[in-house]
Amino acid sequence: MRSLGRKSIQASLQPRDLMAEKRLKGVWTAQVVTLFPEAFPGTLGLSLTGRALKDGLWQLETVPLREFGDGKHRNVDDTPAGGGAGMVLRPDVMASALDAAQSRLPGAPLLYLSPRGKPFTQARARALAEGPGMTLICGRFEGLDQRVIDAYEVEEVSLGDFVLTGGEIAAQALIDASVRLIPRVLGNQESVEEESFSHGLLEHPQYTKPAVWNGRAIPEILLSGHHAKITDWQRVQAERLTKERRPDLWRAYLRAQNRDPDEDQEL
What we know:
Alpha/beta knot
């Protein structure tokens, strides 16, 4: 029987279809060493990053770690030396995966998502966006054998003082932060210059229509049309928020402005 008054719907593009089967020469590339390649592209396949991925402004590849596993069962981990709970990713297995990754993307930095790593920043994202791409290692279990980190000079990076079950979610966040800085990925490149951390400050508050909502009005200055005064207001608000919420950023901002942080008695 045919249902009347309804249209049939078919998916036109599966998420993983966005990922490169053939390498595009000279295109910024994110390569991910992971036990769960099916986790990608994930949210990277949506919105602006997904459109840019489809348009070939960047490309995404996975290196399935299990394919380099040892023995019949493709083991990738073993018990920690010295005892302790959990398992540790084996150095020989990871080395084989990294050798394959580096042969496909030579010269790209190797980054390992780790809570003990150096905090990832907007400046680091910008530097990565200006390069050829990057290879990310997604940890699992109790982490990765230190010998691999040392031998391959892997850069450990952290998204914050918390622990995830694996590096895949963190890898997507890091890739997103970098990809959006690639020219033409964002429709309005000026928005990149105005957002948080671009000038060492948190971003000022944002408002839109309606002018009054639930008894709360948009600040009059933003509706004045006086662009110089609006810019001054936004700067003051950004400084206030940064000072209140991120004293560490505020001190760094003052030093960059050749101002002595110790003179600010409120810190």
